[in-house]
Amino acid sequence: MAYACYPLGILPGLSRLFEDYIAGQASEFYPVPPGGDRWMAAASRPAKPEPALAALLRAQNHAFGAGPLTLANIEKLQTGARAVVTGQQVALFGGPLYTLHKAATAVRLAREASQATGIAHVPIFWLATEDHDFAEIDHVALPAADGALEVLRLGAHPLAHSGAPVGAMRLGPG
Fold it and tell me: How many other CB atoms are there within 10 angstroms of residue 102's CB atom?
C-alpha cells in the first residue's frame, strides 16, 4: 500500500490561529511557542481574581451535581488561580475518547503548572453545546477492510434544519 504524508499547513482555509499553532513558534496568538512546558514560565504569577466567573461556574456546576474537587477548584479562581482551558464540540461521532483525553490533559497540565510555578492552576473544560451545524456532526468516517473510508451517517433528524443547537437534539432508538 502506498501512502503520502503532507504537512497540515497545505490545507486550504486554515485559520491564522491554527497556522500559528502548527508552526510551533511564538506569534500574535501564542506569546510562547505552543507545546512543551515553556508556557508555564508565562503563568508564574497569580491571575486577577475572577469572582464573576467563579460565581457563574459555581452555579452551573452545582446544577450539574459536581463533586467537591470541582467546587474547590472554582473557589481557587476567586482568589487568583490561573486556568488551563479546553473544550470540545458536542458530537455523536466526535470522538468520546478524544473528549476524555482532552479533559484529562487539562487536569494534568493544571497540576503540572501548579507544581512548577507554585501558583494554583485549575482545569476548566467546556462542551460546545450551542453549535447549530448538524451536518458537521452527523457522520463518522471509518476505515473499511479494503483500505477505503466508509462513511456512516446518522440520517435525518426532525430538528436538523430548525436552527436548534445540536446539543439539544435527542436521538431515538433508531
Answer: 15
Neighbours of 148 (CB within 10 A): 9
Secondary element (H or E) of residue 143: strand 139-143
Per-residue pLDDT tens over the stretch 20-54: 888 888 888 787 787 777 777 777 676 788 889 89
Cα dihedral: 86, 88, 94, 99 (round 10): 50
Task: Please give the torsion angle defined by the CA atoms of residues 92, 93, 97 and 103, in that order, rounded to the nearest 10 degrees.
Answer: -60
Reference 43, options 100, 83, 88; nearest CA is 83
Cα–Cα distance measured from residue 60 to residue 147, given in angstroms and rounded to the nearest whole number? 45
* Cα separations in angstroms, 88 against 18, 47, 54, 84, 134: 16, 24, 21, 14, 15
Tell me how far CA of residue 86 lies from CA of 48, 99, 125, in angstroms.
20, 10, 5
